[in-house]
Structures are given as C-alpha cells and as structure tokens.
C-alpha cells in the first residue's frame, strides 16, 4: 500500500511540473500574440492602401495593357513579368507552416487543406509531378519531402514577429522562379487568424497578377471615400510601365508579408489555446490523482486502525 501511495504521489508531482511548463508556454504565446497583433494592425493600413492602388489600376485596365517587359541583368526581378499569363504546365504552392510543434491543429489543418488543393489542381490542370512546393516553415517542408514532392524553395526560421526585410528575399525568389518558368501559376496557402479560438484556411492566387485575382473595386472595403468612387480612367506620368515597376513589387511583398503575419498570428493563437487546454487537462488529472491518493491513504489508515484494534482485542 505504501508503494502505491508513493507511486500516485510521484505522478501528482510530475503532472504539476508539466502544468507549470504548459502555463509558462501559454503566457509566452499570449505575449507573442499581443505583440504581433499590434504590429499587424499598423501594417494592415499600408497593405490596404497598396491593394487599393492595384485595384484602381486593374479597374483602369492598366494591368492588361502593360507590356510583358524583358529579362533584366544581374539577377534583378523582371517586375512586369508578374503580369505574364502563360499556359499552365506547372503550379507553385507556397505553404506557410510553423517550424515547431505544440501548436494544436494549426499545422495539420494547413497541410490537409493544401493537399486537398493539390489534388484538385492535379486533376484539373496538372499531374502531381508538376506541382512545385515553396515551403515557408520546417513542418511543411518536412511533410512534403517525406511524400516525394518537388521542393522548389524552402525557408525556415521565420521570426515570431516577422520583420518586413525578411520577406524581400522570399518574394525575390518566388518572382524569379516564376520569371524563369519554374511554374506558371502560384497559390499562397496559410491559416487566416479569425480570433483567438478560430482560424480559417486560405488559398489565394498570387501570380500571375490579374484584374480578377486582385479583386473588384466595388467590393473593396477601402475603395470608397467621402468624395465617392474613383474613376477608372487615368493619365500616367512617366508611363504605365514605370508605375507598375514600382507598385507591383510592393504589392507582391504585401501579399507574402501579410500572409506570413496572418499565419504567425494564427500560430501563436493556436499555441496559446493548445497550452491552455493542456494546463486544464493537467488540472483534471491532478484532481483525479489527488482523489485516488486520498482514498488510498484513507484505506491504509482504516486498515492500520483495524489491525491495532484487533491486536488489542487479542491481548485482552
């Protein structure tokens, strides 16, 4: 009986130590979530303005009339190449996941829905061999490597609160691969942050940039001002191509950076929720073990009293 009591007591102490770890991890994730939410709120203003400009340009048919441009030297991005529409032979999939576990169903949801998208694309446009994976996050990279997918690009170690400068080399690699025809269409897949308890999978077409995937002006929440809707006719100086050379890279960066920020926000929320759930489960286990310990202790005491009483009666 003493051995049983000691075993239960060890389990209680072990569970309490685990609970201390999960509580600490929940606090860390909550702090990171608050930090990235503040950062995201300020960035969304910039992203909304960039999207508004691109939407207006699309409405004015400037995207359709822009030239395809020529290849640049010294590895520079062919900006106007983002507008090129080609027969779809290969499809690129940017998958944003975490580099670590303990984030609940965050990674499994992204990977499951991305696989569903890949299956749909493979049936509709390409074979699975023509899918190029661009993995941002170690979990996604390892997942697709194990299944024999073509990994065209891999980036690990995204900061907990990503900085804008982290995105630029990613965007340059993505656009360069598109310009070199490594793929002819590109989707970005990630978990969109809804609230602390909820996230929703998103798959958005990033390249080529067209009026259709940019969005409709009338449906854009920032498309209207006090002065009314903007007219879709523009005079450009020095030229439409020169404007797009400046705006398109910023738009591409805003898409990727916005997706990474959104995904990271969802990751921290999922981690916080998972750790809270683990702490709550630890509470339940401790309560159950404590009850088991008290019953065993009470039984041991009752047995001892019975033995003492019996011995006393025998002596009399």
UniProtKB/TrEMBL annotation:
Q: What is this protein called?
A: ATP synthase gamma chain
Per the record, the major location class is membrane
Function of the molecule: Produces ATP from ADP in the presence of a proton gradient across the membrane. The gamma chain is believed to be important in regulating ATPase activity and the flow of protons through the CF(0) complex.
Q: What organism, scientifically named, is this protein from?
A: Candidatus Ligilactobacillus excrementigallinarum
Q: How the protein sits in the membrane?
A: Peripheral membrane protein
Q: Name one GO biological process term.
A: proton motive force-driven plasma membrane ATP synthesis
Question: Subunit info?
Answer: F-type ATPases have 2 components, CF(1) - the catalytic core - and CF(0) - the membrane proton channel. CF(1) has five subunits: alpha(3), beta(3), gamma(1), delta(1), epsilon(1). CF(0) has three main subunits: a, b and c.
Compartment list: Cell membrane; Membrane
Q: What InterPro entries would the database entry show?
A: ATP_synth_F1_ATPase_gsu (IPR035968), ATP_synth_F1_gsu (IPR000131)
Which gene is transcribed and translated to give this protein?
A: atpG
Which cellular component terms (GO) are annotated to the entry?
plasma membrane; proton-transporting ATP synthase complex
Keyword list, A-Z: ATP synthesis, Cell membrane, CF(1), Hydrogen ion transport, Ion transport, Membrane, Transport
The reply on keyword Lipid metabolism is no
User: Source organism's superkingdom?
Assistant: Bacteria
A Pfam family of the record is ATP-synt
- Molecular-function annotations in GO: ATP binding; proton-transporting ATP synthase activity, rotational mechanism
Q: Which family would the database say this protein is a member of?
A: Belongs to the ATPase gamma chain family.
